[in-house]
């Protein structure tokens, strides 16, 4: 079994894209180097958010592709995969996009409020948990689950696509109200 060094921390989403991503990169720069591949690689889990159901969002490093500061955004005790597919505890962009489309169909009015919170996160502003609990849908994932995972997908894209559009690629999956 792969052994991870586990760190519980939190990061503010306030500031510029560069300020936000640099907080993460600075944390990652403190990691100890590995001594080789497979079991000799250093591996980390950063617990960065707690959801209303008690499960935590965590960043897993290195990611599958092992590229630089790349990481996976995972959620404890979650399976995003369809029933007939291999279990997956990390959301793909299409998982969140489909969930948001479902929410927009369920209630355009509530979706406008959710979209406003998504915009705040996209523009590097913190959203308080109390704001997340004010909007509830019958379908899909809880609102805090969506907001707290997409925040980290935005940051991951800012790091992975440093010199390009970064989080704008993930923002492209968010349906307009």
Write the H/E string, N to C: EHEEEHHHHH
**Strand-residue proportion:** 5-15%
* Overall 3D shape: globular
- Which residues form runs of ≥5 with pLDDT under 50? none
Main pleated sheet: 4 strands, mixed
Q: Tally the structural domains.
A: 1
Termini separation: 44 Å
Major sheet strand order: 1-2-3-4
Mean pLDDT: 94
Estimate the helix proportion, in percent.
25-40%
Rg from Cα: 16 Å
Q: Which structural class do the helices and strands define? A: alpha+beta
Q: Tally of extended strands?
A: 4
Organism: Streptococcus ferus
Protein name: DNA adenine methylase
Tell me about this structure.
- The chain has one domain.
- It contains 6 helices and 4 strands.
- It has helices at residues 17-28, 93-106, 108-122, 129-133, 143-160, 167-171; strands at residues 5-8, 44-50, 56-61, 72-75.
- A 4-stranded mixed β-sheet has the order 1-2-3-4, covered by helices on one side.
- The longest helix is centred in the C-terminal third of the chain and has 18 residues, at 143-160.
- This is DNA adenine methylase.
- It comes from Streptococcus ferus.
